[in-house]
Write a structure and sequence with these properties.
Length: about 220
């Protein structure tokens, strides 16, 4: 029997991360005020550009370093940290995200392959019930497309399906794996508005993660390259 492994992204693929940021902002505003909340997100973007990924622990540390106790006392900062530590990510899942994982598991092996910091991103994956849904098969990287050999060795298969909201990552994977991977572009979140990389056309494009429940196992073997 031909084996199939699904590699699933998290932010804006399974979790509505853009909406999460809006809710976090609403929680930060009463404690930090408009100006300091804006500064926090400036630091967030600064770290994201430097590290090429979202790193909440580093963002919090840097924000603490850049604010005085008069601006943000220790009790307030502890509460700010708790906002991130206790966010109910299970409520931020896209509709039918868990059901889609259950369905894909009937077709092959499901693996979460996410980029992000090793602490906050891991907490998000556990607290959202995603880790349990894939039976603990979770990998975190800074640039996951640079670790495709390692991922294949961990879970060998005849064919792979990469499901992601970032076309640049899908394009990189296609260049490396060619016909061995089917790229699925989920057009949720801000990256869906970006132009596709040159000479790249996803093998499959869906508007919502839940749409994947309509496809058969044979459909996921279709590739353009």
């Amino acid at each position: 029997m031909t084996t199939l492994v699904f590699w699933l992204d998290v932010d804006n693929t399974l979790v509505a991360n853009d909406e999460v940021k809006k809710i976090l902002d609403e929680h930060l505003q009463p404690w930090l005020g408009a100006d300091l909340t804006a500064r926090f997100w400036d630091v967030y973007e600064e770290v994201r550009k430097e590290e090429d990924l979202v790193d909440i622990p580093l963002t919090l540390r840097r924000f603490r370093q850049q604010t005085t106790l008069a601006q943000v006392d220790e009790n307030t900062f502890a509460y700010v940290e708790s906002i991130f530590d206790n966010f109910p990510f299970v409520q931020a899942l896209y509709p039918f995200a868990l059901e889609t994982l259950q369905y894909l598991r009937t077709l092959g092996l499901t693996v979460i392959v996410s980029d992000g910091d090793l602490y906050f991103q891991a907490e998000k994956i556990v607290n959202s019930a995603l880790s349990e849904a894939v039976e603990g098969r979770v990998l975190l990287y800074i640039h996951k497309q640079q670790h495709l050999d390692e991922i294949q060795q961990r879970w060998p298969a005849d064919h792979y399906v990469m499901i992601d909201d970032k076309p640049s990552i899908l394009a990189d994977a296609k260049k490396i794996l060619l016909r061995k991977v089917t790229t699925v572009f989920v057009t949720q979140g801000k990256y869906a508005q970006q132009a596709l990389p040159e000479n790249f056309d996803p093998d499959m494009t869906v508007a919502h993660i839940g749409d994947l429940r309509q496809y058969t196992k044979e459909d996921f073997f279709q590739t353009h390259a």
